[in-house]
Amino acid sequence: MIELKHVTKSFGDTKVLEDISVYFEKGKTNLIIGKSGSGKTVLLKSIIGLHTIDSGEIIYGDKEFTRMPLHEKKLIRQELGMVFQGGALFDSSTVEENIRFPLEMFTNMTKEEMQERVNFCLSKVNLVNANKLFPSEISGGMQKRVAIARAISLNPKYLFCDEPNSGLDPRTAIVIDQLIQELTQEFDMTTVINTHDMNSVIEIGEKIVFIHLGQKWWEGTKDEILTADNQELDDFVFASDLMRKFKHQ
After folding, report:
1. How many degrees, rounded to 5, is the angle at CA 111 between CA 105 and CA 117?
2. Buried b (16+ CB within 10 A) or exposed e, 213-227
3. Is 205 in contact with 222 (CB distance < 8 Å)?
4. Which 8-state DSSP code applies to residue 214?
5. 211-214 long-range contacts, Cβ below 8 Å, gap at least 24?
6. DSSP 50
7. How far apart, in whole angstroms, are the C-alpha atoms of residue 162 and residue 80?
8. Is a pLDDT exceeding 60 seen at residue 246?
């Protein structure tokens, strides 16, 4: 699990996050949603340590991450997997080389052990025999699956996904959502997904946190979100014609 207690973050005189307390559950897909500029990206980056918070606590399991010495933070970061927006694959490296990169950086595996792990991760994202292809030779959906395979290569306890469906067609986005949820459950990870995709919310939103103006405005499940008595959340959820139709079914 990951727990945030009274997290606050400012840039200069601008307060971006204010007094956010939330609990992200192990073995579930935890979603952070909100409008552009709401603070959800800053929140995700603060959780993984890319931003230093002004006050509050970020707790991984029973370990308080914020005040850890650097060498202890590095150990925690080795337990994190990250799927970046757009995939962030190395264009000049093959699929296999992209997945092997964190293994070379953070483990003492032999080449044979690394090859076995790469093949295992590719099998988990249904990309067997894609080893020697380059990112330019595969579709956007396949690139996202490679990014997920790389993210789970170190067998992380915690998986973070920043807009994993960005740039994907709706059908492929559903495949990616289902894959992330399946891996979360299979490996019992604490998964945190930053998204504005309401399809993802309805499909896999086991725990949802709505950020508005830098504050936690609402939290609940995908079943509760459709009937929540919260005007700002309602405006966000039912902004599209499709969701408005869904509301009145």
Report:
1. 75
2. ebebbbbbebeebbe
3. yes
4. T
5. 211/20, 211/32, 211/33, 211/34, 211/38, 211/39, 211/40, 211/43, 212/34, 212/35, 212/38, 212/236, 213/38, 213/39, 214/15, 214/16, 214/17, 214/18, 214/20, 214/38, 214/39
6. S
7. 13
8. no
Class of domain 2-79+156-247: alpha beta
- Which of helix, strand or coil describes residue 47? helix
Domain segments of the chain as ranges: 2-79+156-247, 95-155
Task: Say what the pTM is.
Answer: 0.90
Q: Is 160 exposed, middle or buried (0-12, 13-18, 19+ CB in 10 A)?
A: buried
Q: Token pair for residue 18?
A: 């204010």
Residue 237 neighbours by CB distance under 10 Å:
23
| 182-220 tens-digit pLDDT | 999 999 999 999 998 888 888 899 999 999 999 999 999
Q: Which two tokens stand for residue 96?
A: 């296999």
In the chain, pLDDT over 70 holds for what percent of residues? 95
Whole-angstrom distance, CA of residue 158 vs CA of residue 77:
9
Using left for φ > 0, alpha for ψ between -120 and 50, and beta otherwise, residue 9 falls in beta
Residue 236 neighbours by CB distance under 10 Å: 23
